[in-house]
Specification:
heterodimer, A: 259 residues, alpha/beta, Rossmann fold, 2 domains, four-stranded antiparallel sheet, disordered C terminus, B: 309 residues, mainly alpha, ABC transporter involved in vitamin B12 uptake, BtuC, two-stranded antiparallel ribbon, globular
């Protein structure tokens, strides 16, 4: 479907062109091409060590590519620092929960809002209630409002993951990158997380690029899927195309290809 | 929470009344407690709130003191300029050392800072013609208003109170909160658009400046400076004050420095091996009160849903 409609597809928000990254002699990402259109939800799947996280680290500036190009809204962004990329509109969550553990839920989101508004260098105004309304709204949106005064260290794993997504969203990104958003979640929490991601995509037209091991989650959310194995792309296309691909079936879905 | 300002006001009144009934020596010690408290609190901005391994903070204390003493003894400029020059020199040095060190993180930052700081110490220690070498500078002439014991004490009290208030505001500003975020998670901070190194550098300069303020206060109180003030073992002592009082509370370092200064003053008179005492106390604190003395008190008595001050 989507490939047929490619003529109408909106301009690519993110374009990764034959990007290579090696660590010593090991090519973690080997000539990957990827295009993400504005408003799309794209999943990257593949076994452990396939290079998914490395690819994400390249896009968000935590690593810089050895060769190849990464373009965001038509501009070359390869090798820029993470905080610069965040200001350009790319934010992410991490595979391992990555929040400010000693700060409260409220403060976690508050810092992100202040960083977006470039207010973090103000040294003589009181931070206490700054941006409180917006922070409360974000927390209500993700369902963490009641827990706003809890030190985030004390939250459940699922809540922490959701908080991390909330922190990422507070930067009002155009492209949200999620590295295994539902890893380690209980089934109920996973459902909640999926609903959240779908809502944000629908309501705010957010472009989302994510990787995930839970294939059910991938097929439920993603509009397009890229399969990576050993640093390269095996297949890229709509859910149907990926589901039908024999190689993927063998490697990933089991012979029957049922999901 | 309204009891807090009231308690602070009461404390301030008591401190202001001290010289009226304390003998001169004890007034002097009270002033040393105050300025050392400021020194430890300024270090805590970097290490406790910023998570930056500021291992050689005494250099900024020393440069603040030497800057003031040299301006007062060697230049004909008005005295108030000298009192400001010390802290500014400390801030400038902090900026230069910060630019060099901030590209490293954690222990590597600390090691490089100790090396560079020791370089400054060695220069001061050897440059007899300018800094007085290992003798230091004695008998610095002060303006009349602050030259008496009482005058010097009140000057110290006022400057310390203003500086602590400023630091308190900074800690509770967006900048302070961002700094805490960087301490807890630099990767996450960068990913939400925070320029981590720039914030750390700013924190270092602020910490260096207030360390310098404490140094210039020492000149006012003691009318002398000596290279030992900026020897790296003193930096460790200031670090211990922060640990002892509690690094994650604002007033912790003040508590820690008071304990340490008073111990040194009153215990060392009777016991030559007072460092042994210090070692025992510190070991006990680290084992039983890992959050420091004040950290323990706050955790013990805080309201249920609240958090550390």
């Amino acid at each position: 479907m989507l490939s047929g409609a490619s003529g109408r597809r909106r301009a690519a928000l993110l374009r990764v062109e034959s990007v290579v990254k090696s660590f010593g002699g090991f090519k973690a990402v080997n000539g990957v091409n990827l295009e993400v259109g504005a408003g799309e939800i794209v999943a990257v799947i593949g076994p452990n060590g396939a290079g998914k996280t490395t690819l994400f680290n390249l896009i968000t500036g935590h690593l810089s590519p050895d060769s190849g190009r990464i373009r965001f809204k038509g501009r070359e962004i390869g090798g820029l620092a993470p905080h610069v990329l965040c200001r350009k509109g790319i934010t992410r969550s991490f595979q391992v929960v990555n929040i400010f553990p000693r700060l409260t839920v409220f403060e976690n989101v508050q810092i992100a809002v202040l960083a977006r508004e470039r207010k973090t260098f103000r040294i003589f105004s009181a931070v206490q209630d700054m941006a409180a309304e917006e922070v409360h709204e974000i927390l209500r949106n993700v369902g963490l409002y009641e827990k706003r005064n809890v030190e985030s260290d004390l939250l459940s794993h699922g809540d922490q993951k959701v908080l991390e997504i909330a922190v990422a969203l507070s930067g009002k990104p155009e492209l949200l990158i999620l590295d295994e958003p539902t890893a380690g979640m209980a089934p109920e929490e996973t459902k909640r997380c999926i609903r959240l991601i779908q809502r944000f995509s629908g309501e705010f037209g957010l472009t989302i690029l994510f990787c995930e091991h839970d294939i059910a989650v991938v097929f439920e959310i993603a509009k397009r899927i890229m399969v990576m194995v050993r640093g390269g792309t095996v297949v890229q296309g709509s859910c149907e195309e990926v589901r039908r691909n024999r190689e993927v079936q063998r490697a990933y879905l089991g012979e029957t290809g049922e999901c | 929470m309204k009891r807090k300002p009231a308690a602070l006001l009461l404390l301030l009144v008591i401190l202001a009344a001290l010289p009226q009934f304390l003998p001169r020596f004890h007034t002097y010690i009270a002033a040393i407690v105050l300025l050392t408290g400021l020194l430890a609190t300024s270090l805590n901005l970097a290490i406790g709130y910023g998570g930056i391994y500021q291992f050689h903070h005494a250099v900024f204390y020393g440069v603040g003191a030497y800057g003031t003493a040299l301006m007062l003894t060697r230049s004909q400029l008005p005295a108030p300029l000298g009192l400001v020059a010390g802290p500014l020199a400390a801030a400038a040095l902090s900026l230069v050392m910060g630019i060099i060190c901030v590209r490293l993180s954690k222990l590597y930052f600390g090691m490089l800072q100790i090396s560079l700081g020791s370089l400054v110490w060695a220069t001061v220690y050897r440059w007899y013609s300018f800094t007085g070498g290992d003798d230091g500078i004695h008998g610095v002439a002060l303006p009349d208003l602050i030259s008496s014991t009482g005058g010097a004490y009140y000057y110290t009290l006022i400057v310390t109170a203003i500086s602590l208030f400023a630091l308190y505001r900074i800690v509770r500003s967006p900048f302070g909160k961002t700094l805490e975020g960087i301490r807890d998670n630099p990767v996450r901070s960068a990913a939400i658009g925070v320029n981590v190194k720039m914030h750390q550098l700013a924190a270092l300069v602020i910490a260096g400046f207030f360390g310098g303020v404490a140094g210039s206060l020492f000149v006012v109180i003691d009318t002398s400076v000596f290279p030992d003030m900026m020897f790296w073992t003193y930096s460790l002592e200031v670090l211990i004050m922060c640990l002892l009082g509690g690094m994650y509370t604002f007033f912790g370092p003040l508590v820690g420095s008071s304990i340490l200064v008073l111990l040194r003053t009153y215990v060392s008179v009777h016991i030559p091996y007072w460092h042994l005492f210090l070692g025992i106390i510190l070991t006990l604190v680290i084992i039983f009160l890992p959050d420091g003395v004040l950290g323990y008190v706050v955790r013990r008595f805080r309201p249920k849903e609240g958090r550390l001050a």
